[in-house]
Specification:
Blueprint: E1 13-17, E2 25-30, H1 41-64, E3 73-78, E4 92-99, H2 106-122, H3 126-132, E5 146-150, E6 153-158, H4 162-186, H5 198-205
Antiparallel strand pairs: 1-2, 2-4, 3-4, 3-6, 5-6
Helix pairs in contact: 1-4
């Protein structure tokens, strides 16, 4: 089983599944949990796995009708709950690889990360960056990769054409945002939608009245 590199200080969950509905191999690695006090980790993992299944279905259907040449895709989703002062490598929320089992996926994930980072930095879709701001793009950005910035959530994809990758990134970002909104509505607590911030509680404890 291929395991993508994980930072030592980050929470991670790696799952590989094969399901009858989607005959594709899927790998999901969650590197951090953005909402530890408002959404249970297990529920977040399960919802994320369902999201990956949805994307795999989109790929499979696209191949069937001739929209995509193959069902292989690398995905990088950035953590929208982390401010831009956090460096991109420390703001990776999840890495996903979907394939037919015959394709090396590490390069696809690497391509996805390479485009998700500038989308987050500049809060723009990759097509706008390539056309209007090429001077802002560092080395390592592949023209065929594509990414999107969706209401604060940056997503990069690699594996299809640049336009298809950007379109898929847009879809994934929207689905992720909807997923989180539904989970937070369901687990609304007495502390409010967002629970308590561990960092704020720790800082407030140092305040002397």
């Amino acid at each position: 089983m291929m395991r993508l590199p994980v930072a030592a200080d980050s929470a991670s969950s790696l799952k590989r599944t094969r399901r009858c509905l989607v005959a594709l191999e899927k790998q999901l690695e969650i590197r951090q949990f953005p909402y530890p006090t408002s959404i249970p980790e297990r529920l977040f993992e399960d919802a994320f796995s369902s999201l990956v299944d949805d994307i795999a279905t989109i790929l499979e259907d696209g191949v069937r009708i001739g929209k995509y040449k193959h069902p292989n895709l690398g995905i990088c989703i950035m953590n929208p709950a982390r401010g831009l002062h956090i460096l991109n490598p420390n703001a990776v929320l999840a890495l996903v690889a979907i394939s037919d089992g015959n394709t090396a996926t590490r390069q696809l994930v690497e391509n996805a990360m390479g485009v998700a980072f500038p989308c987050r930095t500049f809060c723009l879709n990759s097509s706008i960056l390539v056309r209007a701001r090429p001077h802002c793009l560092p080395d390592g950005i592949l023209p065929q990769a594509g990414g999107a910035w969706v209401s604060g959530t940056s997503v990069g994809c690699g594996g299809q054409t640049s336009q298809q990758n950007e379109e898929l990134s847009q879809i994934i970002g929207g689905k992720y945002n909807q997923m989180v909104a539904k989970l937070r509505m369901y687990y609304q607590s007495e502390d409010g939608w967002y629970g308590k911030s561990i960092e704020i509680v720790e800082l407030a404890a140092k305040f002397r009245t």
